[in-house]
Amino acid sequence: MSKFDNVSVDKKGNVFFDGKCVSHSVIFPNGSRKTVGVILPSTLTFNISTPEVMEITSGKCRVKIGDEPDFKTYAAGDKFSVAANSHFVIEAQEVVNYVCSFG
Question: Which pTM value belongs to this model?
Answer without folding.
Answer: 0.93
